[in-house]
């Protein structure tokens, strides 16, 4: 239905954003009680986009203006399209080798469903009362048969990527075809939790006027694509008969939900009855709004409501007009004859028969010298038989013709390329992953007592590694006055990161087999952003160990979100959390006694920070091996450097615990030892050492390092040499 249009959508959207909790909470509560899924995340996605870029609201107003103008033409033409609109489609299937790697047939089945909904008369599953408004939308979807470079494609791209789980918009950056020429559909295992205001989101679309070209399209769960394969028996909810993508394509073509802003808001379409709140199931007797005349029941068969797929069967003529307006004013290039020819979707249209795209992956690529790797062929784009030629330089076997070679072993530490050549009757394709296999030595790179305070400008240093499911990683940062020993720490700039991202910081391998009661200790700083509804109450830190060069990981400890804060638990209001001093740091000792004796000579540790949209997260002073008792040296009271900055002779005061082997040295910022002040057995108690710099040392930052029983403590020293 349509209210008098005077920038109403603009005003509604503004109101909705600023009163988000109240309005959305109220309208969604209806579904919350009985439903485990939320059909669509388009509204939540739109609100996020507008929050980031309020100028979208002006474009929304422009869109409505264009639509009002177009509507006049549409009516004059007796509601007939100037032509049938043909839309080229590409699916990007993100998978980890499971059933989410859906078949080409399932994608084609979805195309067939789209065309039953958008292209043909509409009386199926539609009550007679709505036959007068049910529309043949005259829009046809076709799988592309030519890719952006003019190469043969079957319209489905496949990418092995763990980001298919809890997927965010980040996947769109990894695989997308020009969004003004193709309708891009990203298929994932499941969708980011941030969209789940009351259940599992099945899909989300970008409106024609919102967001950028890069994010334009639809993200959808694999078990909601079409109606066959996994979609016949989805993980959540009932089979949706391919209606989820029909619904999202409606948003992508400019349609709102009929329950948009409840009875008095409206979807800006005249012939859809007003709806109070999403309708689930298939309730034909519901009439949630009576402010329409004549007072019609809710049109639960409308694709833009939330009813079950088996209940849906129609778009209205008004919705058709709005979608045609979108295609003519906002998505013009897509359906032009020249683009249909370029994408291989013009008449006479035929399914493609292409040469393969060679592609493969392995679930474990980080192994010990004694390990073996199983490779998975995932070549695509070709129907029918393919042959394979694998090249494994440095491995045994060095070549293979198997489709999925197993037990490929490497004898020597190093990094190795892997190549696959896939061939069918149409041609062949070569795919190489550079330095894909990392083979690690069979004994620890470092002895017990490895410490890292992230003081040196190389990061990650000494075989430490970082990785993440996001675009950013753990990084090194100056913590200045807020430091806990030394002046730097490792951190995740978590403010502004999408919820669900995971950040890994991994140590080198260590031999702790000679230590009777080994301990991993470290300091961290973290703050909570909000008390409820996300924020770092749901961030978490896991600590894992691997004794097989990273092939498998065992959890050693975990700090859940409600215990993670080091600022006292109450939400931290500043924009960016930054530790203000030692009181913002917490020390953690992870007892490693549970690690079997035989697995201690080549062990590495992983810090696994899981973001749920909380604040920045810091780690410092990691120690692997010995139990503590000397950690008091982390405190300024027990280990200090003065004066600092220093223009000449510098004093280093150490309150030594009960320890034997010590080394006190001064290093430059590249880790080169400048002076050793003390080395060997030491006695307990307070001692003062002096450092008199050679005149050839330049002014600048130096590090004073005290190593006791293999554990290191550092202090920064600012040296000012003679003027
Ligand atoms: Zn929707």
What does this structure look like?
The protein is of the alpha+beta class and 723 residues long. It has 4 domains: 8-342, Collagenase (Catalytic Domain) (3-Layer(aba) Sandwich); 360-440, Immunoglobulin-like, CATH 2.60.40; 446-628, Jelly Rolls (Sandwich), CATH 2.60.120.200; 633-719, Sandwich (Immunoglobulin-like), CATH 2.60.40.3080. It is 15% helix and 28% strand. Strands 2, 3, 4, 5, 7 and 8 form a 6-stranded mixed beta sheet that branches. It is elongated. The structure holds zinc ion.
Topology summary:
Layout lengths: L7 H11 L1 H13 L4 E2 L3 H11 L3 H21 L8 E11 L8 H15 L20 E5 L12 E5 L9 H5 L8 E6 L11 E2 L1 E3 L12 E4 L21 H10 L64 H13 L7 H6 L17 E2 L4 E3 L3 E2 L2 E2 L9 E5 L3 E2 L2 E2 L7 E3 L3 E11 L2 E14 L5 E2 L2 E3 L12 E4 L6 E4 L9 E5 L9 E5 L3 E2 L7 E8 L13 E7 L7 E6 L1 H4 L21 E6 L12 E7 L6 E9 L13 E4 L7 E7 L4 E8 L4 E9 L3 E7 L8 E9 L2 E9 L4
Parallel strand pairs: 1-6, 2-3, 2-4, 2-5, 5-8, 10-18, 19-25
Antiparallel strand pairs: 7-8, 9-12, 11-16, 13-15, 13-17, 14-16, 17-18, 20-31, 21-24, 22-23, 23-31, 24-30, 26-29, 26-31, 27-28, 27-30, 32-33, 33-36, 34-35, 34-37, 37-38
Helix pairs in contact: 1-2, 1-4, 4-8
The site of zinc ion has 5 residues, from helix 7.
């Amino acid at each position: 239905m349509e209210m008098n249009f005077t920038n109403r959508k603009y005003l509604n959207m503004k109101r909705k954003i600023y009163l988000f909790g109240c309005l959305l909470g109220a309208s969604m509560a209806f579904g919350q009680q009985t439903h485990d899924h939320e059909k669509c995340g388009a509204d939540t996605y739109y609100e996020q986009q507008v929050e980031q870029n309020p100028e979208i609201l002006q474009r929304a107003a422009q869109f409505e203006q264009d639509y009002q103008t177009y509507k006049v033409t549409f009516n004059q033409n007796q509601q007939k399209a100037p032509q049938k609109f043909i839309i080229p489609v590409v699916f990007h299937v993100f998978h980890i080798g499971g059933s989410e790697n859906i078949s080409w047939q399932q994608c084609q089945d979805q195309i067939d469903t789209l065309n039953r909904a958008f292209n043909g008369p509409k009386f199926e599953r539609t009550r007679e009362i709505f036959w007068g408004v049910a529309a043949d939308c005259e829009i046809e979807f076709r799988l592309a048969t030519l890719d952006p470079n003019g190469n043969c494609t079957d319209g489905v791209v496949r990418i092995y990527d763990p980001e298919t789980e809890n997927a965010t918009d980040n996947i769109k950056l990894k695989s997308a075809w020009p969004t003004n020429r193709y309708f891009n559909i990203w298929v994932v295992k499941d969708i980011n939790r941030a969209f789940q205001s009351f259940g599992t989101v099945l899909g989300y679309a970008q409106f024609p006027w919102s967001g950028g070209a890069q994010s334009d399209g639809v993200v959808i769960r694999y078990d909601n694509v079409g109606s066959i394969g996994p979609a016949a028996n989805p993980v959540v909810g009932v089979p949706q008969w391919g209606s989820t993508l029909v619904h999202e394509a409606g948003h992508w073509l400019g349609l709102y939900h009929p329950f948009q802003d409840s009875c008095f808001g409206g979807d800006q379409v005249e012939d859809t009855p007003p709806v109070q709140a999403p309708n689930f199931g298939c309730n034909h007797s519901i009439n949630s709004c009576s402010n329409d005349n004549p007072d019609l029941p809710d049109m639960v068969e409308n694709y833009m409501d939330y009813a079950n797929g088996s209940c849906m069967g129609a778009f209205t003529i008004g919705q058709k007009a709005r979608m045609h307006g979108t295609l003519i004013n906002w998505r013009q290039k897509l359906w032009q004859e020249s683009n249909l020819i370029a994408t291989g979707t013009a008449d006479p249209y035929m399914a493609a028969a292409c040469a393969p795209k060679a592609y493969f992956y392995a679930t474990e690529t980080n192994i010990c010298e004694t390990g073996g790797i199983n490779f998975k062929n995932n070549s695509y784009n070709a129907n029918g038989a393919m042959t394979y030629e694998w090249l494994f330089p440095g491995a045994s076997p060095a070549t293979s013709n198997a489709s999925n070679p197993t037990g490929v072993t490497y004898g020597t530490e190093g990094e190795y390329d892997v190549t696959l050549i896939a061939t069918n009757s149409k041609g062949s394709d070569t795919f190489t992953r550079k330095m894909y296999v990392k083979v690690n030595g069979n004994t620890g790179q470092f002895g017990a007592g490895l410490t890292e305070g992230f003081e040196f400008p190389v990061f990650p240093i000494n075989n430490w590694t970082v990785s993440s499911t996001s675009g950013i990683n753990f990084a090194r940062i100056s913590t200045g006055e807020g430091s806990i020993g030394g002046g730097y720490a490792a951190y995740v700039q978590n403010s502004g990161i999408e919820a669900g991202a995971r950040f890994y910081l991994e140590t080198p391998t260590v031999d702790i087999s000679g230590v009777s009661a080994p301990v991993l200790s470290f300091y961290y700083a973290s703050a909570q952003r909000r008390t409820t509804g996300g924020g770092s109450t749901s961030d978490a830190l896991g600590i894992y160990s691997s004794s097989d060069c990273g092939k498998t990981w065992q959890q050693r400890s975990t700090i859940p979100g409600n215990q993670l804060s080091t600022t006292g638990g109450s939400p931290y209001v500043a924009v960016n959390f930054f530790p203000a001093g030692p009181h913002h740091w917490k020390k953690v000792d992870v007892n490693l006694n549970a690690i079997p004796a035989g697995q201690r000579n080549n062990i590495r540790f992983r810090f696994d920070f899981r973001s749920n949209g909380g604040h920045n997260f810091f780690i410092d002073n990691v120690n692997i091996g010995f139990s503590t008792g000397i950690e008091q040296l982390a405190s300024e009271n027990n280990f200090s450097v003065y004066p600092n900055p220093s223009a000449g002779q510098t004093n280093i005061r150490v309150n030594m615990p009960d320890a034997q082997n010590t080394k006190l040295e001064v290093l430059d910022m590249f880790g080169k030892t400048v002076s050793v002040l003390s080395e060997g057995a030491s006695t307990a108690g307070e001692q003062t050492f002096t450092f008199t710099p050679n005149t050839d040392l330049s002014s600048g930052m130096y590090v004073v390092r005290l190593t006791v029983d293999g554990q290191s403590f550092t202090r920064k020293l600012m040296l000012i040499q003679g003027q």
